[in-house]
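Marked as duplicate of an earlier ticket. Keeping the data here for the record.
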Amino acid sequence: MSVTRDRWQRREAFAALIEKGDYQGFITADDIVTVFPEVEDAEERLERLRDFFRGAGIEVYEDPAEIPAHLRPEEEPEEAEEFDLSAIASDDTVGLYLKEMARVPLLTTQQEVDLATRIERGRSADSRLARQNGNGTARKRTELVAFIQDGRAARDHLIKANTRLVVSIAKKYMGRGVPFLDLIQEGNLGLMKAVEKFDYQRGFRFSTYATWWIRQTITRAIADQGRTIRVPVHMSDRIRRLYKVARELEQDMGRKPSPEEIATVMDVDSRKVQWMMRVSWRPLSLETPVGEEEDSELGAFVEDETTPTPTQSAYQNLLREKIEEVLATLSPREARILRLRFGLHNGRSYTLEEVGQKFGLTRERIRQIEGKALRRLRHPRRARQLRDYLS
């Protein structure tokens, strides 16, 4: 059963990956590995998947830097902010984190290249040391170990020097259901991935490259963690595009666009637009403060559909009184039998057998008494009193 469920989940993820590629015109190799982690070290299988997607008209890019400019999100690269650290309280977690990170100055382009060169040299030394497998001279091993340690130090330096860039980007995603510190943590994961994949020989700034990875991990975290009901990442991308189109149309038309108008621009069915709008709604706590002074809670204004309204309660009380008046015209035994059979006493309906046990009579005799009592209630004089409540 678990194998079938896992296969179904993989099929759903694969379909979502195709939909993402259709929507944005491309996917990255990292997207493929996210769905099929086992292919990361299996180049032949990864290449077959690349061929499949390219055959379906979906380009696969090994590196975000390869993505053509016209396919990238219409956003400018971020720049790390300079923060005022002069008045940070001792209990300000974010402030203390920034103060610690600010000890590492921002890097120049040349410094980024120097660090990237040292990182690459350290990786190369690590590979060479692994290939030696304990062979080689002690001097050579010492030299390679020194390069490896220097590469790791350069990696740490490049990460720490760009943590302010992570904070700058994370600030723009506050209020989307994920705590600020968690956004920073997710952004740091993207920053570390950018350090691993950065190619300084392409000639662009590291911050330009890292911005894409930081945004990618933050937006994925928001899609995974930011909602009570999880929305797939590719659907979150579509919802963001929907609201972007809606804002642009509202600016052009001077009014809120209809789902049909949004659907025309997005080239999708209007019912899908309405569905995406419903999916994007976030659950609200019934304890959410409302009012100008926030002295009330949302729950006080939400109708409880399981509780009768005052009108319904009054109606039920009058009906109960009228039923008691009509039952009072029967014999005490007939009235009690009807109350037990129809749950008029405590809401529970008793069977003929149970009622018979209470009266010491057979179930057939109880049936006869019940039938006689009901016939008497159908008499026009008695039925007239209840007719208004039953119409």
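See parent ticket for discussion. The chain has four domains: 2-70, 93-229, 230-284, 310-390.
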